Amino acid sequence: MYDHFETPEPDEAVKLALRRIEESTARGEGSDVDGLEFNEVVVNMGPQHPSTHGVLRLVVTLDGELVKDVIPVIGYLHRCKEKLAERRTYFQYIPIVDRTEYLASINCEWAYVMTVEKLAGIQVTRRAEFIRVITGELMRIASHLVAVGTFTADLSPLGTAMVFYMFRDREVILDLMEELTGARMMFNYYRFGGVRYDLPDGWVERCRDFLKMFPRKIKEYEALVDDNAVFLQRTQGTGVITQQDVVDYGITGPNARASGIDLDLRRHRPYSVYPELDFEVITAQHGDIFDRYRCRMDEMRESLKIVEQCLDMLPKGPAQLGSLRAPYVITPPPGSCYVGQENPRGEYGTYIESDGSRYPSRLKYRDPCFCNLQLFPKLLSGNKIADAVAISGSIDLVLGGIDR
Amino acid sequence: MDIDAIAALLLERFAGELTDVRIQEPDTIVAGCARERLEDVAARLKADSEVGYETLNWIAGVDHRTSFEAVYHVYSWKTNTWIELHVKVPKADPEVATVTGVWPAADWHEREAWDMVGIRFTGHPDLRRILLKDDFVGHPLRKDYVDLAENHPHV
Amino acid sequence: MDIVLGILRAILFVVIAYAVVFVAALVNIYFERRAMAFIGDRLGPNRTGPQGVLQSIADAFKMMGKEDFRPLLADPVLFTLAPVTVMIGAVAIQLVLPYTQGLLATDLNIGVIFLVAITSFTTLAILMGGWASRNKYSLVGALRAAAQMISYEIPMLLALLIVAMIVGSLRVSAVVAFQAGYEWIGFYAPFTFLMFYIASIAELNRGPFDLPESESELVAGYATEYSGMRFGMFYLNEYAGLTIMSMVTVTLFFGGWMGPWSGALTWWGIDWIGILWFLLKTYVLVFMLVWIRFSIPRLQVDQLMGFAWKILIPLGLVNILATAAIILWVPEWKWGLAIFGWVSFFAFVGLFDPLLKRRLRKQRERQPVVSA
To answer: Which string of DSSP letters, residue by residue, matches A175-244?
Structure first.
């Protein structure tokens, strides 16, 4: 009967997990039950699972219900973007940058475009800077909506309703962006020296309508979730990221700010017109799941403030440098440059080395989720497995950026 | 401390070890470092009381056709500035000491540099491929990489 | 002649019981998907058949058409028996449930106890399914589901004891007869109803107590190794249970089949208006069950068990003592019960959340602020 079975050869990650179990057993931390060598089991939360984070594989070592160790295995969405950069002109590469952190793709474009502009010394028109801030902050709201919605979906069936409420509001933002750029998700909108299209007629009014409507919605979502004793019990106190972790692992974004660290690249390394805008950097004290959720909700409010200020301050002028089209082929002088930008998930940046030709010589992404994911083994160990799902939802991972 | 003062400080403290120190506006210092001195320089950069570079932002492996290079981008909380260390690695012997002892974040970044460019980081706790499959042959981000059929047998 | 009539009557009731279970399951699946969609600002199934009413039947056909296999190492007898056993609870409960005047299969003299006892069959079936799967995680999931179900049977039983005390008898027909003239037990003992309702949600593995089901998101649930119609049995039983438990609740607490114009249409000794009232009241409770499922996040396993053992059972015991004291010593005991019932109901509903929040706030203040 047993000959019908062929256990597949475990791959490197599973072998590593098994090796670690053997090592801990050899150290004497084996099982406390008679007849068992060790308590732990290695379970694969495979690249496909009903949790919402993309094709992430977690090889989890479980002791009953406690997670002993987690080995994340990534690369299922690897599309060799860094290699593609070596064969595309800088202009041809813009749509490809979109597809890294696809939930906040305009921010990804922004980082890339800023880096090339700095490398090549291209100035951006003032109107375009404001449009960039408006679109960037709108997509920050959209991205946080997805993050919070899917996070509540991880916790309960309540979340399945929440996801749809939040997606309904995200639809309004995406409609605005579609009107502006022609696309709902992969915008291909920023150009070196400006943006591709200027604001259409009536767009500002429609944007202001959204700004009037949205604060009420945020209050609605908070009322549904914040006041819920079960939710509070599950999220307060679990998944704490200490400040030492933030410094050691390079955690940025709301994950770091929820631990009380005041790091926001819009303040600390200001780019575009952020120095002229008035907004607060949201921090929280406890660094647990609840605080990360609260940081994201409050950041949505701050983004609304920023968009409103920009709409008020919007100057007249060209939306693009140059007459009608952006330069197709630019050849930056040889050199290298890195610009980091405040993506909804943290610091997202591109490091570009140019050798004077039309193609980049090396393009490297600094992805926030890649750095955040490194913290997983430390963060998830010692928690129950249901908490592990909640924690991984609160870190807000987008596999597109991790795998590139 | 403004960026010029920091550059002067670094030149003073790491004379001879940090080469080609220059400032990239507005807040990054770019410097080269010899690969033999990397571990020591890294530890001292982190422990420095005035400009402690405590958080590693990213590590990139680069292929410059004649040699490899490892680029380390580190942030200093005290001064709110960055430093970019360029470490040249010869192609014949592409090895560099790991800095995971100094900056724990280096773990996955070095694995990616190994995976993509083939720079081996000696002393790394677990140097495996991270983005590509485990039995992938070759290092894609090298300039002389040729697509091998054995890497995608079904296509 | 009597024997033949008796056998025919028995067959009729068996057919009715199975029909109720299957039809109720299919209706509930459709109803829940529609209600879930409504709550989530969506539409739900509206293509298959007019307004999507044939969706459940389409799902049933799909499940029947799936390959029916059994893992090689699974226990052959138990693996086949578990899906069969799971339906027994839902069907056998209807033995003592009066759908209406004249439609009561058996008037057992221990009917009320029988109701709780029979629900244990579902627990048994889940354990059988988890064990037979020869899968470590199915077993753990099954054990956890079983622990939850037996923990919550105790508050159910305590609530039923109170009903029996008030009515003075364990016969279900006596319970319904007591509630004639709108003297519903739900009005005399609302807190008991609340306790019973919460316990029944946990019995059904439903709503905020569905951790055994959600485990299948992460690790195997007890029904992982089942597919096709075997899984369909577990699935249908869960949805049929919604209706069956609501029927039990309605019978015990809300007057069963009684309502306005009750005696109007009586043919062959069966009160047909009563059936309508029974179904209406049942489906009000089913809607509330669906509503609750999508309003509250899932409880963790320690919160679940803590709630049963540390809150519901002590309160249930206090309730029994108080009810017994009132019935024995208060001359107008119905009034006394009503006052005590409503006061305790509002006290529980009003105080539980603030007290819990206060404890959480204190915990939060004691929680250390992250420091470097």
So the answer is: HHHHHHHS-SS----EETTEESSPPPTTHHHHHHHHHHHHHHHHHHHHHHHTT-HHHHHHHTTSSPPPHH
DSSP letter (8 states) at residue A384: B
Placement of tokens 């890649």 in the chain: A370
Query: Mutate which of B22, B24, B46, B58 to test chain A, going by most A C-beta atoms within 10 A?
Result: B58
Q: Give dist(CA C312, CA A356) in Å, integer.
A: 75
Q: How close are the terminal C-alpha atoms of chain B, in Å?
A: 56
C-alpha–C-alpha distance, residues C346 and C352, integer Å: 10
Strands A194-195 and B120-122, bridge-based pairing: unpaired
Minimal C-alpha gap between A376 and chain C (Å):
17
Residue among A215, A136, A217 nearest A177 (CA) = A136
Q: Which residues on adjacent β-strands are paired with residue B60? A: B71
Q: Residue type at A190?
A: Y
Residue C90 pLDDT exceeds 70: yes
What are the phi and psi torsion angles at B75 (to 5°)? -110, 145
Please report the sign of the dihedral spanned by the C-alpha atoms of residue B138, residue B142, residue B148, residue B153.
Answer: positive
Q: What is residue C61's three-state secondary structure? A: helix
Tokens for A84? 């593609």
Query: Are the beta carbons of B119 and B70 closer than 8 angstroms?
Result: yes
Domain borders along chain C are 2-352
Rounded to the nearest 10 degrees, the angle between the axes of helix C229-253 and helix C2-39 is: 100
Amino acid present at A128: A
Q: How confident is the model at residue A352 (pLDDT cuts 50, 70, 90)?
A: very high
Q: Which tokens in the block code for residue C242?
A: 């919604």
With b meaning 16 or more CB within 10 Å and e meaning fewer, what string describes C269-280? eebebbbbbbbe
Residue B80 CA to residue B16 CA, distance in Å, equals 25
Chain A interface residues (partner B, CB cutoff 8 A): 11-12, 16, 74-75, 78, 80, 82-83, 86, 246-250, 268-269, 336-338, 340, 347, 349, 351, 353, 361-362, 364, 366, 370-371, 373-374, 403-404
Identify the CA nearest to A241 among candidates A231, A252, A225: A252
The predicted model scores a pTM of 0.84
Every domain range in chain A assigned CATH 1.10.645.10: 81-403
**What pLDDT score was predicted for residue A1?**
42
Contact B43, B66 (CB under 8 A): no
Using a CB-CB cut-off of 8 Å, the residues of chain B touching A74 are: 130-131
Does the CB of A157 have a partner CB in chain C at under 8 Å? Answer: yes
What pLDDT, in 10s, does the model give residues B16-75? 777 777 887 778 888 888 888 888 888 888 888 888 888 999 999 999 888 899 999 999
Q: Tell the residue number behind the tokens 């994950």, with chain if given.
A: A255
* The amino acid at A246: V
Domain A81-403 sits in CATH at: 1.10.645.10
Let me know: does A159 contact A153? Beta carbons within 8 Å: yes
Residues forming a β-bridge with B31? B85
Q: pLDDT of A277-319, one tens digit each?
A: 888 888 888 888 898 999 999 999 999 999 999 999 888 887 7
Domains in chain B: ranges and CATH: 3-151 (3.30.460.80)
Residue C76: cis peptide before it, omega within 30 degrees of 0: no
The contacts found for A266-270 with CB under 8 angstroms, 24 or more apart, are A266/A342, A268/B80, A269/A340, A269/B27, A269/B80
Percentage, residues of chain C above pLDDT 70: 96
* Run of H or E including C287: helix C272-293
Enumerate the β-bridge partners of residue B32.
B19, B86
Which residue out of B46, B82, B108 would a mutagenesis test of the A interface target, given it has the greatest number of A Cβ atoms within 10 Å? B108
Pairing of strands A57-63, A41-45: antiparallel
| Closest alpha carbon within chain B to A270 | B26
